[in-house]
Design goal:
four-stranded antiparallel beta sheet, 4 helices
Length: about 110
Amino acid sequence: LVVSPPENAVSLTQPYLVVVATRPSTDELEDDFRYFKEKYPTLIGNARGRVDSVQSQDGKTWHRLSLIPPRTQDEAAELCEKLKTAGLTECWIKPLPIPQSSAEAR
């Protein structure tokens, strides 16, 4: 038995975030985001900033600034490469965790 999705079904692919800075303080990230919007206006466009906090192995808390909305892996990688080419030194992509209820819907 093969079940095909409806023709109007939305594809649920893994979304990715473009991470543009990691700092010990969120205040620094606010300054970074303003600077990036001014320095790379055509690349950043209307993107907004998202801050995620992570704990390192030594127990320190770090804050990551990502651009939202999320993108496909290819789109995120392409934007990151363009930002690096334009002079941004810290840029990488990471998968956006999908809430469990969305993952189950797959």
